[in-house]
């Protein structure tokens, strides 16, 4: 694996921490500690996935409409995904520690702003801004942990990537259970108190960002080993530290340009858009859907549905993470391309779930479980495929580019759903299995799932053919 040298920014952000860590830890002990710390950070990083817990208080206390709720959800998605291509590129050049520093500067203050806006009923635009910054801070914190884990153990891409992805999925369930404590409930009501939760998140993420900063230093340490930086120079001014050269940045740009020119990149990108966008919309509107879809789910609390979604998502992440690692390390199965087949299979539960909503089926808990399974599998397998195809050393840039898809898809799907809900569902009593207010939007989204499956299948064929050509050429050169 090719590593870039240490940039001046990365050196400035990590030097003193490296001095301290090398004085108190062995290299292997430091690697394990940083990996475990990154996973621990991910266990509490997914507060944005619990946004549906706060939609009812925002609607009742601030009189937000369903469209306004979805605009806030779109703001979260914009912050969470649109900045990732730039953040990923910077992380590849300057190390994940830069993302940890950005999350420390934005996470706590953003939740504090949201708390103040809610308590004093300030401008709706400020609430949108707060959650856009929360999304960007979440992206920085989570992506830093993901890159740290992937670059500490690059030989086990399936597990080193699915580990933080799984922990991030578990975090929604953990945070949901924490917010169910009586302290976080509104007085005289079963609804969650957003102000208390947002203040709690402010404190939590200041601490987590600091821990993430320390853990991400391990990537810099690995670079020092590659470039043979002598440990005895620690404690000096370290003027001899190797900084990244223009040639390194030019090589990174050439690799990234090749990634952008490959047709399969765009087929997978659109497949990801058709899958992730509607599922992000589902997470944002789970509380509202619970009141509309079918008849049996109306009495189920939203916290139970969020926990069920998180549990099914986490189970899927663990399963596909272990299986993809096995497939990738099994040369007889052409592992990195067999993972594409696994992705195809895991799209089916989501297709069934959205079809059930389109036909107004009453089993909302089943729908949540099906969509959660596909959500977890998709967000675990896509980065694994990207890392296997285009390399871990460029994962920040390549996977960051892919994250534009859920951002765009979430905004489009959320706006479409909100407009259709406001136009057809409010006050509507004419609901049958094949003709009710959500048949059109969820029927179209289910069709998008089917189209994504087709695009993944075509990309799978292209990957396999290119691999066969490469193997044939290698054998010819050896002979």
From TrEMBL:
Its main location: membrane. It is found in: Vacuole membrane. One of its GO terms (cellular component) is fungal-type vacuole membrane. The chain crosses the membrane at residues 35-55, 67-91, 97-118, 125-153, 165-183, 195-215, 337-358, 364-387, 399-419, 439-460. It is a multi-pass membrane protein. Keywords: Membrane, Transmembrane, Transmembrane helix, Transport, Vacuole. SUPFAM superfamilies: MFS general substrate transporter. Pfam families: MFS_1. GO terms for molecular function: transmembrane transporter activity. InterPro entries: MFS (IPR011701), MFS_trans_sf (IPR036259). The keyword Zinc does not apply. Belongs to the major facilitator superfamily. This is Probable transporter MCH1. It comes from Kuraishia capsulata CBS 1993. The lineage of its organism: Eukaryota, Fungi, Dikarya, Ascomycota, Saccharomycotina.
């Amino acid at each position: 694996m090719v590593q870039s040298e240490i940039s001046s920014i990365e050196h400035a952000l990590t030097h003193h921490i490296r001095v301290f860590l090398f004085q108190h830890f062995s290299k292997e002990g430091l690697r394990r500690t940083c990996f475990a710390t990154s996973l621990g950070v991910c266990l509490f990083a997914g507060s944005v996935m619990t946004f549906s817990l706060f939609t009812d208080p925002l609607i009742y206390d601030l009189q937000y409409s369903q469209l306004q709720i979805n605009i806030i959800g779109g703001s979260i998605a914009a912050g969470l995904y649109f900045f990732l291509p730039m953040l990923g590129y910077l992380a590849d050049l300057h190390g994940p520690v830069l993302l940890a520093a950005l999350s420390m500067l934005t996470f706590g203050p953003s939740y504090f702003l949201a708390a103040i806006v809610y308590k004093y009923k300030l401008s709706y635009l400020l609430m949108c801004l707060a959650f856009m910054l929360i999304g960007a801070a979440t992206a920085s914190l989570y992506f830093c942990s993901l890159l740290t884990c992937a670059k500490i153990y690059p030989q086990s891409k399936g597990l080193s990537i699915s580990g933080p992805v799984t922990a991030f999925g578990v975090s929604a369930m953990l945070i949901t259970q924490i917010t169910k404590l009586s302290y976080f409930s509104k007085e005289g009501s079963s609804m969650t108190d957003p102000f208390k939760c947002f203040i709690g998140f402010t404190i939590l993420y200041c601490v987590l960002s600091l821990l993430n900063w320390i853990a991400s230093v391990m990537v810099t340490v690995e670079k020092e080993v590659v470039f043979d930086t002598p440990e005895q120079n620690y404690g000096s001014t370290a003027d001899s530290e190797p900084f990244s050269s223009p040639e390194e940045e030019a090589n990174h740009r050439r690799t990234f340009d090749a990634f952008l020119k490959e047709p399969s990149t765009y087929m997978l990108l659109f497949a990801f858009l058709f899958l992730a966008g509607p599922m992000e919309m589902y997470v944002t509107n789970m509380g509202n859907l619970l009141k509309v879809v079918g008849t049996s789910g109306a009495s189920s609390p939203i916290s139970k549905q969020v926990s069920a979604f998180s549990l099914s998502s986490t189970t899927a992440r663990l399963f596909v993470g272990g299986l993809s690692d096995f497939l990738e390390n099994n040369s007889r199965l052409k592992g990195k391309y067999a993972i594409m087949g696994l992705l195809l299979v895991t799209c089916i539960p989501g297709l069934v779930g959205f079809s059930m909503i389109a036909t107004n089926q009453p089993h909302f808990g089943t729908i949540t479980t099906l969509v959660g399974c596909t959500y977890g599998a998709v967000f675990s397998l896509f980065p694994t495929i990207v890392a296997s195809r285009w390399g871990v050393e460029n994962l920040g840039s390549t996977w960051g580019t892919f994250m534009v898809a859920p951002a765009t898809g979430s905004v489009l799907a959320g706006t479409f759903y909100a407009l259709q809900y406001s136009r057809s569902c409010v006050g509507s009593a004419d609901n049958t299995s094949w003709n009710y207010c959500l048949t059109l939007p969820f029927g179209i989204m289910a069709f998008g799932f089917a189209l994504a499956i087709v695009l993944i299948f075509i990309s799978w064929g292209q990957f396999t053919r290119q691999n066969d050509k490469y193997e044939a050429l290698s054998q010819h050169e050896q002979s």
